[in-house]
Amino acid sequence: MFDSIFFRAGLAATLLSAAARPVGAQVQERVYPPAAPAAQDTVARDKQQFANPSVLGMGPSKGLIVRYERMPRFGVSSSAQVQGLNDFSTEATKNARLSIKGYIPAWNHPHLKVIVGLSYEREEFQFAQLPTTYELYDNIENKGLKSTAAQVAVIRPVDDVHWYLARVKGELSGDYTSNELTKSDYSRFSAEAIYGWKRSPNFSWGVGFQYGYTFGRLSLYPAVVYNRTFNNRWGVEALAPARITLRYNVNPSSILYAGYTVDGYNYIVHLTRAPLARKNADGSPDPSKAVLSTLELRETEVKFRLRWERELLSFLWLGAEGGYRYNYAFDAFDRTNADREKIIDSQLNGAPYASLELFITPPRKLLEKAGVRR
């Protein structure tokens, strides 16, 4: 799956540098670590200025993030796309996600920043009737759909206007156990590259591409970064088409966001609890098709969200988020036979969701040593 958290944090490759960004720096005395000296929003080295994707007013840096998300009961329906399978509908009584992510600055220089990221995510489903008698749902019930990933992000400023950003990510995604971590079936890869322009301390934008699972299946699509602060309160942070967010800086310790995100998940599911056989129209086994041993589950959703971030301690922030989840796809594909057909087309009903998040920012003492007011 594609990890847009890198951009949700305001392009996380800049977030953990010893000099991070200010919140509402134009009028507020308390300033978050800027990407460089606040007066120029650049880093001076031998009088050379270096651009970056961040702008004044963005939120604080995120080093370690723990997030839990939950949805209430909602309807689920599936329709067969091949012969011999049945349609089915039920209710999901639980859909929850836990994620733990960390970002470490491996190299932090004005002209080159390298960030290493590690993450673990787990999604769980529970359904109203057990067993459901439907192979797809019985095989994901309380199973734990996981993603364990490592990524490297690089920001390379060229001069005081131009910058490059690149990221590569490898992950294991599916219902694997600790004994199956080496199986290639679970391997996933994603990447992105952006070339950008820093027009002012309040405006940075760029164009490039993303290659990953944001829309469920592995695909290559264009991407536009647009970060702009309009005044001491309002700003916008976007990685279109995956995310657009309007920002309102309430005060130095409180930020509000509103917008949408597109999230994609791609899991390999082993059919260990209920076998699934390809059949003929009369219901007899299809001898030309092997009994399915795995499925590829592609999940794509759009979230319309409101978010509030609040400082709890000098190094600890709380993020509270709520909104509406629209499911675009929850489809299962044959991973056993060569045709790789879609065999089940599912729809998860729209539902509200809520999440809580704690994240760690650079501590005050470290910023003071760096000569940055906060």
UniProtKB/TrEMBL annotation:
Organism taxonomic ancestry: Bacteria, Pseudomonadati, Bacteroidota, Cytophagia, Cytophagales
Entry protein name: DUF6268 domain-containing protein
InterPro entries, per database record: DUF6268 (IPR046235)
Start and end residues of each DUF6268 domain: 177-269
Source superkingdom: Bacteria
